[in-house]
From TrEMBL:
Keywords: 4Fe-4S, ATP-binding, Iron, Iron-sulfur, Magnesium, Metal-binding, Nucleotide-binding, Transferase, Zinc. This is TIGR00269 family protein. SUPFAM superfamilies: Adenine nucleotide alpha hydrolases-like. Residues 14-95 form the Rhodanese domain. Zn(2+) 1 binds at C3, C6, C22, H25. It comes from the Archaea.
Length: 308
């Protein structure tokens, strides 16, 4: 097949909208969608400093690559989760990606910082649950401590559709009230954005291939059996039968999101007595889980004008 715009051999067949594209026109299409997402949802202003959370995988690598290409002022943060060889390979890929882009990379190693890696803590809490808690706290506090205007993550359309689907199946209205491409900043909460919000995982993989972006493809060993993966499979089957299912589902949710927001319980936030970050109780869930007695300080020291 031939590219719709230039008659060169097709690199990819898009199912929605249905068309064949060569590498050059697919790259143009992909980057234009990110620009439109940023504009449509008012994710960023041109002069804002952005901290991109990079895992070493495809989604965050592509997010950093495109934001840099579009001219945004970015730096990257990698959180090494302390999961043996998996985390070592992830960090190596994150370093290579940032070196190729020529952007600063900051690394926080959970095991060095907190004494245990993810999966090593004795707890009844599911591993993915406290891993998520840990990552969210670290990237928000790192961004706050270092004066970033926004935190960008690599969540794509498949991630968002499966998360919404999962929470609708369980009627977790508190979560459904807060989802979307933009979480506004407030107080010590730094604004969070998802530039890949309207792009599928398949499109992200294709963009990485078309632009020579290397990434860590191994799945986290703790992700096996996660319910979100099961919901992704259901949505993939529906997408194959009816192209456009995922994007229409997510856009429909955004149109009706106000229904869930109306049920959102207002929680009065105070400062955690240990770290000073927002908390619904005397001690925040992060400090309570990790049994911290002193606050973590992520401020980057400057040596000769450069961060270290």
């Amino acid at each position: 097949m031939r590219c719709k715009f230039c008659e060169k051999p097709a690199f990819i067949k898009l199912h929605y909208p249905k068309m064949y594209l060569c590498p050059e026109h697919f790259t143009e299409y992909f980057e234009r969608k990110i620009k439109r997402t940023i504009e449509r949802y008012k994710l960023l202003k041109p002069d804002e400093r952005v901290l991109v959370v990079v895992s070493g995988g495809k989604d965050s690598a592509v997010t950093a690559y495109v934001l840099k290409k579009l001219g945004y002022d970015i730096e990257c943060l990698h959180i090494n989760l302390g999961i043996g060889e998996y985390s070592e390979k992830s960090e190596e890929h994150a370093q290579k990606q940032c070196e190729a882009l020529g952007v600063p990379l900051h690394i926080v190693r959970v095991k060095e910082l907190l004494g245990h890696g993810i999966g090593e803590v004795r707890t009844r809490r599911p591993t993915c649950s406290y891993c998520g808690l840990t990552k969210r706290y670290i990237f928000n506090k790192f961004a706050y401590d270092n004066g970033f205007d926004a935190v960008a993550t690599g969540h794509n359309l498949d991630d968002e559709a499966s998360f919404i689907f999962s929470n609708m199946m369980h009627w977790n209205t508190q979560y459904l009230a807060k989802q979307g491409p933009l979480t506004p900043g407030e107080g010590k909460f730094v604004k969070k954005i998802k530039p890949l919000y309207e792009l599928t995982e398949r499109e992200v993989v294709a963009y990485a291939l078309a632009n020579g972006i290397e990434y860590h493809s191994e799945e986290c060993p703790h992700a096996h059996g996660a319910t979100t993966l099961e919901f992704k499979e259901v949505l993939n089957d529906m997408e194959e039968k009816r192209p456009g299912t995922k994007i229409n589902f997510v856009k429909g949710y955004l149109r009706k999101k106000h229904i869930f927001e109306a049920e959102l319980e207002e929680v009065e936030l105070r400062e955690c007595k240990i770290c000073g970050m927002p908390s619904s109780g005397e001690v925040c869930s992060f400090c309570r889980f990790w049994r911290l007695e002193e606050p973590l300080d992520f401020r980057v020291k400057k040596i000769n004008g450069k961060g270290r």
